[in-house]
Each structure stands twice: as C-alpha cells, then as structure tokens.
Amino acid sequence: MRKSPKKILLLSPLPPPAGGIATWTKKVFDYGLPGWDPPVILNTKLRGNRKVFQKARFSTSEIYRTINVLCLLLFHLIKTRPKAVHINCSVSPLGVFRDLLCAILVRIFGFPLICHFRGNLGDFPTQKRLSFFALKNLIKLSKANIVLNKPSLEFFSRISPSHSAPFLIPNFIDDGIFTKQVIVRASQRRPRALFVGGITKAKGGLEIVETARSMSGIDFVMIGSVLSDMESELKDAPPNLFLCKEMHHAEIIQEMCQSDLLLFPSHSEGFPNAVLEAMSVGLPVIATKVGAIPEMIEEEKGGILVDVGDLKAITRALEKLIDDSELRTSMGRFNREKSRNHYSYSVVIKKLTAVYDAIS
Fold this sequence. Notes:
Elements: E1 8-12, H1 20-31, E2 40-43, H2 60-79, E3 84-89, H3 95-108, E4 113-117, H4 129-141, E5 144-147, H5 150-159, E6 167-168, E7 192-196, H6 205-214, E8 219-223, H7 228-235, E9 241-244, H8 249-257, E10 261-264, H9 273-281, E11 285-288, H10 293-296, E12 303-306, H11 311-322, H12 325-342, H13 345-359
Parallel strand pairs: 1-2, 1-3, 3-4, 4-5, 5-6, 7-8, 7-10, 8-9, 10-11, 11-12
Helix pairs in contact: 2-3, 3-4, 9-12
C-alpha cells in the first residue's frame, strides 16, 4: 500500500542574497527532513535593490512581491496539498501583514499552519498598533508557533497567555563544519577581530569603527554589505579597519578560522548565524546581550557579553582576550563542543520534524 506523501510547504526566502533565513532554507532543502518528503519551497525572497538588513518600506515592489507570494501560495495549496504549511516570519512591522494574509489563505483551505518567528519578538514595536494587531492574529491562526530565543518566549506569554506555548527551536549549523578549526595565530601576525553581517549601525557598526580607532594594535575585519547609514562613518575609517564585501559561505568560514575572535556588538538579534558559525569553528565571542546570544555564549566560558553601545566594556573584553591564547583556546573549545551538542543540524532538525509530526 502506497504511503500518502508527507510534504511541508515552506514559505521562505532562498539565496541570493544569502541572509540568515535564506541560508537556513537552502540547508533544509539540501539536507532534507528526516521522515518527511523534501519540502516544497515557495520562495519569498526580496525584490528590487533592497538588501537583507534594510528595513522594509511600503513600495510598489513590496506590493508586487506580496501579490506574487499569495498567487503562488494559492497554486501550491491546490496542487501540492501539503500536510502543513510553514511560514518563516521575519518579524518586521510591514512583513507581518503579508504573513497574516498568507495565514488567512492557508486557514481558509483548512491546512495546519506553523509560524516560525525568525527575529526577536521582544523587539517588536508594539506601539505600531496595526502591526501589533496583525502579529497577534497571526499567532492565533497558527496551530503551532516557533521562536528562536527566551525573550521571544517571554513576549509570547505576555501578549497571548491563553494560546498554547510556542516551541523554542534554535538555528542549526552544518554537521560538516566541525571539520574546520581555528588556526593558532603565528607570532608575527597581528591580532585579528572579525565581524560578519550587515555593516549598519543596528548591527553595531559604529561601535566597531570607534573601537578600531582606539585600539590600533588590532586589525578589525568586517565582512558584509555596507548600508547607507554607515557610509559616511566609514569614509574616515582608521587604517586598521578592513572592509570585505559579501563572500561565499566557505570563504567566510576560512576567514573565521584565521581570526582570533568574533566581535558582534549588534543591537538586536534573533539567533545570529555568525555567532553560531564562529562557535562551531572554535572562536571565542565578544557580543552584546541581545536575543539568543546570552543563551548561546556562556559568560567567561565561551566569551564575554557586553551591553549595547558600551565601548568601554568592548575595549576591556578585547584587552582580556586578544593576548591570552590559552583563554581564547579554552573558550573556543567550549563553544565548539556546545554547538556540536546543541546546535548541529542532526540535533535541531529532529525538534522541527517533531513539531510537524505533532500537528499534521
């Protein structure tokens, strides 16, 4: 007797551009879902010239994108007949309206809905009443909700206490990354602090520039697209600050292996892939106490946590780590084992498929 298909319809962006959600989606498609058919991807990627880390604005291109997504969703609901629909939600004040329209369409057709909130819900602008209203209704329409971090869990319990608790599922890392490892710095090489992500003020770009200016003995390398709010700041960048455009993933991992630590002073995060990748190759991390980072980086075991915008704390952390190779090595080893045991694909994907099994 032929088994009925176990298909998930996944509404999510695919690269390019290679943002965190798009990279996650490609890996799920490439590696598959244990016990399930390959997912059917409805690509919700950005259109036009907007970059991954730029804020969404109401525009004709976004209207066209929304209409296109809804039409494709209607087609797939009729043709694919999935066991469930999984929407990756970027948690933006405008994007939540598109996600809500998709959710309504899914529920009209009677399919189970999973909303996977890919940012930090605790940072959602609740003062934007229409957006907040859309978010609350999106949560209510979902048979299961997934969040990335504890602040999102707490936010969820405040705004929707009567709804069943969401599932806390972290992002994952390729099992194959554990073949890569940090190269111990040669004595003649200058100390090197690495940042990976959108080069914008919201990601702590200004703090990195100011820290580089005050710590000339360290090379600061920033990999990512420069957004407009940092262009003027970088015109007067110090000579020990090096900018690299977006790279292929393998090249980024290589850069991590040749660095001494990851510096990640972001102002808001969900579950940052850059931090997870740095942990997995054995880098210590200096980062802000936002989103899932305090759950990922254990203070004094895997790195040093600082408050947002605290330049003095960043400087102290760099001074503590940059010349202490034994401390960096022990922190890196701790991070590597933690990521292998808690965040590897083979571990995390079982949690995701358990949600699928529970609601389908």
